[in-house]
Each structure stands twice: as C-alpha cells, then as structure tokens.
Amino acid sequence: MASDSHMHAGHDHDHAGHDHSGHSHAGHSHDHGHSHTPEVESGNKNRVLLAAAFTTLFMVVEALGGIFSGSLALLADAGHMLTDAVALSFAYIAYRASERPGTRHMTYGFDRMKILVAYTNGLAILAIALWIVVEAVHRVLSPQPVLGGSMMVIAVVGLIVNIGCFAILHGGDRESLNMRGALLHVMGDLLGSVGAILAAGIILLTGWTLADPILSVVVSVILIRSAWSLLKESGVILMEGAPSETDRDAIEADLSAHVGEAADIHHMHVWSLDDRQKMATLHARMKEGTGPDALTMAIKKRLRDFHGINHATIQVEESPLCLDGREQDGHAHEHAA
C-alpha cells in the first residue's frame, strides 16, 4: 500500500465515510472524501453469502456423483465448486472487513481487502483450469468408463443450482472486482455443468467417452481467459497503477490549463484504493498573489468535478525549485499503467 508522501506523526485518518477536505498542514492538504455506497455493499455481501451456502451444499453432491459415475467433468466441476465455496466465503469476509474504519496502522481502512480477494480468486480459477487441462490429457491417453446416465442427472441438477447462484450474484454491483471474482467462479461452475450435460448426452447417444475430457478442456480455456482479465485488473490496483480509464499526464495537463492559481503542477501520481476510490498526490507551485488555500481548493474542485478523484494530497510550493527534485517525478519514464 502506497501511503501519502507527506504523513504527519500522530495524525490518524479515519476513512469510514468521512470527508476531511479543506484542512491543511504546512502546505499539505489531504482530502479524504470516499464514495462509499453502504446499501450496495450490504446487498453484495448478502448475495455472496447466499451463493456460498448453495455452492457448498451442491459441491458435496457433485463430488459423490463424480466418484460414482467416473466422470472427470463432474469431479472437475466439484473441485471448482469447492474452491468457489472458499472463494465466496472470502469474498463475504472481504465485504465485512471493508466496513471497518481505519486504524493507526491501517490508515486507509480495509477497502483493499476486496481487491486482494479478487486477485486470489483469479489465481485459484487459473490453477483449477490448468489442472483440468492436465487431467483431461491423461483421460484422453488412458480413457476410462463413464456412467452417462448418472452424470446427466447430477449435471442437470448442478446447472439449476448454478443458474440460481448466478442470478443471485448477477443482481449485485458488477463494477465491483470482488463481486466479479465471485461471479466468475459461479460462471465457471455454470459452464462446467453445461459441459458435463453435453458430454453426458454424447456418451449416452454414441458411447464416445472422450467427449468428457474434451469438453472439460473447452470450459477450462474459457475460464483461463476470464481469470486472466480479473488478475490483470486487480493486479494493477495492487501495484498502485493508474486506473485504466485514467490518464495521469492528461489530468496534470488539465490542471495546469484550468487552475489559474497554479504556476506549475508536477510530481503527480494517481492510483486507486479499490475499484471505486481514486487517489492522487501532487505538487503545485503558486502564482504570485495567490494563497495556498485558494490554490488547494481550486485543484481539489477540479479533480473532484472533472476527474472523479475525491481523495487528494497536495503539497503547495512557493519556490520555483522543487525541494524533492524534478527528476524524481517519473516524467522521464513510460508508465505502463
């Protein structure tokens, strides 16, 4: 977690929905307005908990059915549902943790727990998909008997359960990476059930048991693509990268062009605390005749109204010479984010 570059000893910030904009300390201003939506987060939390309960119950049934029928598709989906039950539980815990206010040590609060869980879910999905591919190769090289009838019954029941879980989560906030991670797990189960049904149908009609591992691989490829997207987005946030829709250089140029009180804007950094709250730090040199408060408020207003950044830490400077040195601001380097 990157902290503001100008922290004051003994000055603790509570981020539980409070806005401390407008206070300044020796040229530093910290705006802590957060766009929390408690109703939406509470709804997400309850949906994830309900989906976790359904997933856990059916996971046991599907695992027993996979062992009885000898179906890799069912066993793979049961294994996926086991990790889903754990992942959904972690997603629920993350929502609960994000409700906690900041502390002396966790001054930004626990909102990023949701992103950490989303990233972990992406890794888990990727690992499961790769395991299914490896196991499918073994099944192709050494075909095993599969009871198509039992496989079909369990897969159909699984599809119904997964559609129910997907409907529960789909009604939540799909802009939340934590919710998207949970949805991705359930979508993987849903696709697994569809693949198992198709494989069971082919086996019942033709006796071709290779349909089971082949369709398992197809589902795995879809999961790998989705997991990579989730890993990429959550990874950028964990690495303090700028949000994908945010251009740091463009924001800096916009402030220089539209904030008349500023003679120069530099050392600007933009990142996201979670998938909602954008953050920024920057240095701003005053024009002659301009006070630090006027400059600070003008920058904050521009960031909030035009760029959706409600948390900004601003260092106001009077001297043309930046005390931190211009060569440190990163403008000479390309920013992948």
From TrEMBL:
Protein name: Cobalt-zinc-cadmium efflux system protein
Subcellular location: Membrane
Record-level Gene Ontology MF annotations: zinc ion transmembrane transporter activity
One Gene Ontology cellular component annotation held by this UniProt entry: plasma membrane
Keyword Transmembrane helix attached: yes
SUPFAM superfamilies tied to this protein: Cation efflux protein cytoplasmic domain-like, Cation efflux protein transmembrane domain-like
Keyword Transmembrane helix: yes
Organism: Faunimonas pinastri
All residue ranges annotated as the Cation efflux protein transmembrane domain in the record: 48-239
Family: Belongs to the cation diffusion facilitator (CDF) transporter (TC 2.A.4) family. SLC30A subfamily.
Sorted UniProt keywords: Ion transport, Membrane, Transmembrane, Transmembrane helix, Transport, Zinc, Zinc transport
Source superkingdom: Bacteria
Primary site of residence: membrane
Domain Cation efflux protein cytoplasmic: 243-318
Gene3D superfamilies according to UniProt: Cation efflux protein transmembrane domain
Transmembrane segments: 48-68, 74-95, 116-134, 146-169, 190-208, 214-231
